[in-house]
């Protein structure tokens, strides 16, 4: 995140309020820590037309609502309400560069194990300046984590919940301590799941593959976007199937993707170079295409880009 533009307001429980007035009692921590769900949405500034486009805002807010549903939260606002609130907050904060909408829903109260219906639900939206790395693709040296990815019958990754990310954080800490940029987790079946915050794509012999949504991954909106772009624009249908760990070692290209991560090339896995260790041609193609789409430059995908101004 960048702090080059001040953010003065946020949206809390249906009202826009100054950041300085957003306070909660310290006693709310116990409930909020165990129940919180969140969402992140990018807005891309197109300098040529002087417009900020929020990318796939409806889909993100729908996922946010689904997360609240699956943890039995009181959903007082519709998806349309949340979209309007997010766009309005960007305008209030004068967002005229790349921005990020972060939503969080949480319960307040003192009971860590209290039943959901006995706790008040609060809904927060905030906007933050954020840098984009699509112009200069990141390269990551990754390891396969010793930690296993959580499963749907344990702590469902389909829910974008704060407690779930303890799994990601532990894997990332291990990776960083051992000199890697990120970690790739395997699921309970020993198949490739995702990195600590992004989905994984593997390219071998011109074929593009990614792990299915039943492999312990978040149902990524960026992943779904790229699957469509590969098929419709690059004529490379994506095969959704289980991926073995060793396939990462002999892949021609590997990259990961997500709202926060955008698209990052993986240059090595467990010290095995991926291809020649450089950013591969197919990865470069999809990054270039994705960058033009999120900036509202592709008319057929304009519906994904909600203008703020």
Question: What do these coordinates show?
Answer:
There is one protein chain. With 309 residues, the protein is of the alpha+beta class. It is 26% helix and 31% strand. The protein is built from 7 helices and 16 strands. Strands 7, 8, 9, 10, 11, 12, 13, 14 and 15 form a 9-stranded mixed sheet that branches. Strand 1 (9-12) and strand 2 (15-18) form a beta hairpin. Helix 2 packs across helix 3 (79-92). The longest helix is centred in the first third of the chain and has 14 residues, at 57-70. The chain is globular.
Largest sheet: 9 strands, mixed
Whole-number radius of gyration?
20 Å
In terms of quaternary structure, the protein is single chain
Provide the succession of SSEs.
EEHEEHHEEEHEEEEHEHEEEHE
Total strands: the figure is 16
Fraction in helix = 25-40%
Mean pLDDT, as a whole number? 93
What characteristic shape results from the CA principal axes?
Answer: globular
* Portion in beta strands: 25-35%
